[in-house]
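ARCHIVE CARD
Drawer: 12
Card no.: 0347
Subject: one protein chain, sequence and derived structure
Cross-reference: see card 0346
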Amino acid sequence: MTPDAVVRLVAGCVLQYPGDYFHDELPRLRSALAGAAPEQAEPLGAFLDEAEAQTPLQLCAQYTSTFDTRNRRCLYLTWWVDGDTRRRGLSLVRLKRIYRDFGLEYTGEELPDFLPVALEFAARVEDAGTRLLQEHRAGLELLRLALTEAGSPYARVLEAVCSTLPGPSPETRAEAKALAKNGPPQELVGAGSALEPFGPGLDMPEDLPVALPVGRPPGRSVDLPWPQVPERPVGLRDAVA
């Protein structure tokens, strides 16, 4: 597993609802970070230090209050592009088909654009996963900036995630929104995929609805192929042909 895949998998674990057993997983998360580049492991390690200092109840309360669409801190990737509109449904179907194109079936309780799901995919299938995250780079960077402005320790997790993508991160909201205006890469996500990429000129909605679920516990567990990382997948499993 490459250093970027380690970062994505660990970040996907900590961006799920922590629940009562998160502290039990801390030793394995720290051990997994030994496979990440030092500059990527540092922000994730700092987050784990802060999480360890909190009780499970405090950590769960912090998670629920942090990831809130009203404060423009949302973990659902297509929300940043589509809002709660009809076209978002098509984007969610597209994501499921992308996962299946690469031999993975999405069976989780969360929506398929939930960031931990995309990060698990991007760890399993790095090239296609990188292109998928890059399509949603503007939303990821806006989320990172919003968490930074709020003084949230989760900002460090998003810093680590964005560091696995090509090019520097924008420093301002205006620069992040410019990513949306310029559009994502034009190539398809995955060789042989029948899915069309988002076209250029994406607009970031200024007033997005807030009726999206956040903070639900992850779906039923399945085995991951990397035993050094806690088994907290969010619904991706090998597809049945």
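Annotation on reverse: The chain has a mean pLDDT of 77. The chain is about 50% helix and 0% strand.
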